[in-house]
TrEMBL record, chain A:
<feature type="transmembrane region" description="Helical">
    <location>
        <begin position="181"/>
        <end position="204"/>
    </location>
</feature>
<feature type="transmembrane region" description="Helical">
    <location>
        <begin position="610"/>
        <end position="631"/>
    </location>
</feature>
<feature type="transmembrane region" description="Helical">
    <location>
        <begin position="32"/>
        <end position="54"/>
    </location>
</feature>
<dbReference type="GO" id="GO:0016020">
    <property type="term" value="C:membrane"/>
</dbReference>
<dbReference type="GO" id="GO:0008137">
    <property type="term" value="F:NADH dehydrogenase (ubiquinone) activity"/>
</dbReference>
<dbReference type="GO" id="GO:0042773">
    <property type="term" value="P:ATP synthesis coupled electron transport"/>
</dbReference>
<keyword id="KW-1133">Transmembrane helix</keyword>
<dbReference type="GO" id="GO:0012505">
    <property type="term" value="C:endomembrane system"/>
</dbReference>
<dbReference type="InterPro" id="IPR001516">
    <property type="entry name" value="Proton_antipo_N"/>
</dbReference>
Automatic annotation (TrEMBL), chain C:
<comment type="subunit">
    <text>NDH-1 is composed of 14 different subunits. Subunits NuoA, H, J, K, L, M, N constitute the membrane sector of the complex.</text>
</comment>
<keyword id="KW-0520">NAD</keyword>
<keyword id="KW-0472">Membrane</keyword>
<feature type="transmembrane region" description="Helical">
    <location>
        <begin position="60"/>
        <end position="83"/>
    </location>
</feature>
<dbReference type="GO" id="GO:0048038">
    <property type="term" value="F:quinone binding"/>
</dbReference>
<dbReference type="GO" id="GO:0005886">
    <property type="term" value="C:plasma membrane"/>
</dbReference>
<keyword id="KW-1278">Translocase</keyword>
<dbReference type="GO" id="GO:0042773">
    <property type="term" value="P:ATP synthesis coupled electron transport"/>
</dbReference>
<keyword id="KW-0812">Transmembrane</keyword>
Length: 634, 307, 99
């Protein structure tokens, strides 16, 4: 079994190597090969999963020490993998959704010349993501962390001939770098504090508490910074919307289902650290609560279907982060929501991709409308994903999100009320913006004219089976995953040995909360239906009141970044340049000038006349005689 | 053994009166000589002043019982070294004198001030040293001064002596190397010199000799050109600078005319020739007299020389 | 008369020689002044020999003379060769000993 663990990662890595290095010789087989290797990886994951299930609940872990990576003095880092229930969950999600999206891409990217590269990058991403979740130490995790960042960068900028894509890739890379610095600092801190990187060596309550409260808080905060960068949480959220410039399968896989949830994984994995640092936990829940509202509000204002979904992703991950910040009450639900979100958000993105595929990459929802008749499969799967995400009773989102809201209330005190309120409000907004997307896209009259009718748009048509099939699978997951996990608290029991769990006591009873959630959801749906279903949707976005305009501008995130970091940074750099030119260079030049000036003045002593030199000697002799006589006299 | 020797041989705090007189007289001479060395404008005078000082010092050596050194001082220093100096002075230019203008600003004043300070310091130091007792060389010179020195040189100072020998050899070789001039190009023969002269474009021919006819061949008389003016090229520039030039151009013509008339009278014929300096007959086929002015020709006597 | 007067005389001659080295520009005269300084030293050495009643001072003076002779030979050779190339015996004309 241990060797399977290595093979699990090796399969996509091999795919990446072959596809990226193989040149045009592998052009033809690229889509099939990439998908097959991803599938192989999933099969291996499934075998490992069944193997884990066969073990007793407390000992469900597989370790695989591949080789000693670095060994310098007391510093030792192994390329070692650790598979437990948490990473198993991720492995299945990554390889499962990943395989589906590979298959989907066969259809979606069928006409793209750079298919080979695309599948190579996707495989590279799978490998890096698997390293991330399987690493048994933070250093190796960092490798995977940077690897997914790289793959994300490459895939966002996949259509780099578009300046917007190139810029978006750069933006994502730069913003992620800020978070990565957090993880790097965390790794440094761990080494200086604990002398090791391994989860086993660090993630134990007694070990963490031995480091002291301050160290634990600091570690928690830098880890949170890392999670914010990777998971697009406030304040490092700005890259996710622009990342939608990448091909839609990429948005589905990386920027919805897997990579952006790495932050949740990191926090859940480091639960021992966060449990010991309440301040850091508070920061985590604040970030989560703010982001879930932030993303939801942005999602409401966007007309670009992918950007609206990106806002939704941000918001849903905010839920997960919020849950993870709640401590043992929330870890399990954070991961559960992560998995169900993986299903329905991937499904939604694939649906959006299917629509774009049919409409020649048109993303403006104001130019959609009435698509349900033209694309029944897409409509059905998208609709199921929609119901799942808004928490329609019985579907996945209902189970996972309700649990988070419940846990937020269970936090207790004012804090609990605020967090729970935010989560509830978020649920209502989620219902609103998702309904808005749904209505604008599929209902009403078509707001475009096809070529047959004398317009410019192509006639919408259903996507090929290779694209529809993954959507169907994901839709099935969206519908049943939540119920399957919650039935008999299966997921809880599965994950509990790793993350620990404690039941919170909500001041509000579960029934009331559920009812409130459903009512708020219906309210959101109704408002959206009222706004967009009952009335004609204008083809161009009307000039609205300022909060809407602000939301359209991503709540000013870019303006803020520009004003604070870009302009501030420029000014700071200018100041430094000024200081360098005047202060440092001035000092250096001043010293040089002083030496030079003094030297040229001294040089006049050396006028080349022997007599002048002789005079110096004679004068020196006089001084020596005088000094000698003086000393003798004294 | 002279009285001087005896005086020097005795160890005492005071020298004899004779030595005192000798010292005071000769010390003045020595100081004057030294000052002369420094202050004389001409190097030759400086050298002579220095020689005087050295001789005085030789006498002082004798007075202090250093007979060998006294002799060496006269033979080597005053004899050889000073002659070498004089030789070089002659070589370099006996008349070369320092100009009075000081090139280095303040050097002279600084040197004098520094020198005064140094002198005062030294003298103060000596005065402070309480050098009162003089052992005298009585015992050291008992076996003769040169013998005593020889004994020391060939025993205790043997190595130093050998080294000074090596030093002298080195100095001699060094002097030869420094003054030796290696010929690095072919010696110019007559052809080369002629070519060089033509290339320079001045005075291709030998310079005209001074003197006029056979009557004046002294170097201070410039040769006369055909038109009777003196040629500057025929004279040493030095003589002209000194104003020692003797111009006989007027006299020559006058004498010539005198000679002609004398001859005519002697032969008993009418004087029919008239001398016209500067004017020459136009030869057939030539442009005129002026064109031939540069032709080296003796003054023409116009007349009926038809025979 | 105290023979220490010889030492005073030596100091005086030495000082005059040093001042001469600084003042004069003719290299030959400068050299003469150096010789004057050496001679002043010799006088002091001879006087000290008398003072101590040994011949070592005279030996040193003797060596000084040898060295001075060697120095004169080389120095004058240098002056002659400098004069040959620069047609001047002035130490101020050879002012290339600078940057």
């Amino acid at each position: 079994m241990n060797s399977l663990l290595g093979l699990l990662i090796a399969a996509p890595l091999l795919g990446a190597a072959v596809l990226l290095l193989g040149g045009r010789f592998v052009d033809r087989v690229a889509p099939v090969l990439g998908s097959a290797l991803a599938g192989l990886s999933f099969v291996l994951g499934a075998i490992l999963f069944s193997n884990l299930l066969g073990k007793p609940a407390s000992g469900r872990a597989i370790d695989s020490d591949l080789f000693t990576w670095m060994h310098v003095g007391t510093f030792k880092a192994d390329a070692a993998f650790h598979l437990d229930q948490l990473s198993m969950t991720f492995v299945l999600l990554i390889t499962g959704v990943g395989t589906l999206i590979h298959i989907y891409s066969i259809g979606y990217m069928a006409h793209d010349e750079k298919r080979r590269k695309f599948f190579g990058y996707l495989n590279l991403f799978l490998a890096a993501m698997l390293i991330l979740v399987l690493a048994d130490n933070y250093l190796l995790l960092y490798v995977g962390w940077e690897g997914v960042g790289l793959a994300s960068y490459l895939l966002i900028g996949f259509w780099q001939h578009k300046p917007s894509a190139a810029t978006a890739a750069k933006k994502a890379f730069l913003v992620n770098r800020v978070g990565d610095i957090g993880l790097a600092v965390a790794v440094f801190l761990m080494f200086t504090t604990f002398g090791t990187f391994t989860f086993q060596g660090i993630l134990h309550p007694s070990v963490v508490s031995s480091a002291g409260q301050g160290k634990a808080t600091a570690l928690g905060l830098v880890l949170l910074l890392a999670a914010c960068g990777k998971s697009a949480q406030v304040p490092l959220q700005s890259w996710l919307g622009d990342a939608m410039e990448g091909p839609t399968p990429v948005s589905a896989l990386i920027h919805a289902a897997t990579m952006v949830t790495a932050g949740v994984y990191l926090i859940t994995r480091s639960s021992a650290i966060f449990n010991a640092a309440p301040t850091a936990q508070l920061a985590v829940v604040c970030v989560g609560a703010v982001t879930l509202l932030f993303g939801a509000i942005v999602g409401c204002a966007k007309d670009d279907i992918k950007k609206a979904l990106a806002g939704s992703t941000m918001s849903q991950i905010g839920y997960m982060i919020l849950a993870a910040g709640l401590g043992p009450i929330g870890y399990v639900f954070a991961i559960m929501h992560l998995v169900t979100h993986g299903f329905f958000k991937a499904g939604l993105f694939l649906g959006a991709g299917s629509i774009m595929h049919a409409r020649e990459d048109e993303v403006d929802m104001r130019k959609y409308g009435g698509l349900w008749k033209k694309m029944p499969w897409t409509f059905a799967t998208f609709g199921l994903g929609y119901l799942a995400i808004i928490g329609f009773p019985g579907l996945s989102g209902f189970f996972s999100k309700d649990k988070i809201i419940e846990a937020a209330f269970a936090k207790g005190g004012t804090e609990g009320w605020i967090l729970g309120g935010a989560a509830l409000l978020g649920a209502a907004i989620t219902a609103y913006y998702m309904s808005r997307i749904m209505v604008m896209t599929f209902f009403g009259k078509p707001r475009y004219t096809t070529k047959a009718e004398g317009g410019t748009s192509p006639e919408a048509h259903e996507s090929p089976a290779v694209m529809v099939a993954p959507m169907v699978v994901l839709a099935v997951g969206s519908v049943f995953a939540g119920g399957f996990f919650s039935l008999g608290s299966r997921f809880l029991h599965w994950l509990e040995p790793v993350t620990g769990h404690s039941e919170g006591h909500s001041p509000v009873s579960t029934g009331v909360l559920t009812a409130a959630t459903i009512v708020l959801m219906l309210l959101g749906m109704g408002l959206a239906w009222f706004q967009y279903g009952m009335r004609e949707v204008p083809a161009a976005a009307p000039r609205s009141i300022w909060p809407v305009r602000l939301a359209r501008r991503d709540l000013g995130q870019d303006d803020f970044n520009h004003a604070v970091f870009v302009r501030g940074g420029t000014r700071f750099a200018d100041g430094l340049a000024e200081f360098d030119a005047k202060g440092v260079d001035g000092a250096v030049r001043g010293v040089a000038g002083a030496v030079g000036g003094g030297s040229s003045r001294l040089r006049k002593l050396q006028n080349g006349y022997v007599r002048s030199y002789a005079f110096s000697m004679f004068g020196g002799a006089v001084l020596i005689v005088a000094a000698t006589l003086f000393m003798r006299a004294v | 053994m002279t009285a001087l020797q005896l005086l020097a041989a005795t160890g005492s705090q005071n020298a004899s009166t004779g030595e005192a007189v000798q010292f005071w007289v000769l010390a003045v001479v020595a100081v004057c000589g030294a000052l002369g060395t420094v202050l004389m404008r001409k190097a030759v005078h400086s050298a002579l002043c220095l020689a005087a000082t050295m001789i005085v010092l030789a006498v002082f050596y004798f007075a202090q019982g250093a007979y060998f050194l006294g002799v060496v001082q006269i033979v080597v220093y005053t004899g050889a070294v000073m002659m070498l100096f004089l030789f070089v002075v002659m070589l370099v230019g006996v008349s070369s004198a320092d100009s009075l203008k000081e090139t280095l600003k303040g050097q002279r004043v600084a040197a004098v001030v520094c020198g005064l300070g140094f002198g005062i310091l030294l003298i103060a130091g000596i005065a402070n040293a309480k050098l009162n007792y003089f052992a005298g060389l009585g015992s050291a010179n008992a076996g003769g001064n040169p013998e005593g020195i020889a004994r020391l040189i060939f025993t205790r100072y043997f190595w130093a002596f050998e080294l000074t020998g090596a030093l002298l050899i080195t100095a001699a070789v060094g002097a030869m190397v420094l003054t030796h001039k290696e010929r690095i190009e072919k010696r110019k023969d007559q052809l080369d010199l002629a070519r060089e002269r033509v290339r320079k474009g001045e005075h291709v021919t030998p310079l005209p000799a001074p003197g006029v006819y056979a009557r004046h061949n002294a170097v201070d008389i410039p040769a006369l050109l055909p038109d009777g003016t003196p040629s500057e090229l025929s004279m040493l520039p030095v003589l002209r600078e000194r104003g020692q030039e003797r111009d006989v151009s007027g006299e020559t013509v006058h004498r010539l005319a005198e000679l002609e008339s004398l001859t005519d009278r002697h032969l008993g014929r009418e004087p029919k020739a008239t001398y016209r300096p500067g004017k020459r007959p136009a030869l057939p086929g030539q442009g005129g007299g002026e064109a031939l002015a540069a032709e080296p020709d003796r003054p023409e006597i116009e007349g009926g020389e038809t025979s | 008369m105290n023979p220490v007067n010889y030492v005073y005389l030596a100091a005086l001659l030495f000082t005059i020689g040093a001042a001469g080295v600084l003042i004069r520009r003719n290299a030959i005269v400068v050299f003469m002044c150096v010789e004057l300084m050496l001679n002043a030293c010799n006088l002091a050495f001879v006087t000290f020999a008398r003072m101590h009643g040994g011949l070592d001072g005279q030996i040193v003076a003797f060596f000084t003379m040898v060295v001075a002779a060697a120095e004169v030979v080389v120095g004058l050779a240098i002056i002659v060769s400098v004069f040959r190339t620069r047609h001047s015996a002035s130490v101020d004309d050879a002012n290339l000993m600078k940057l």
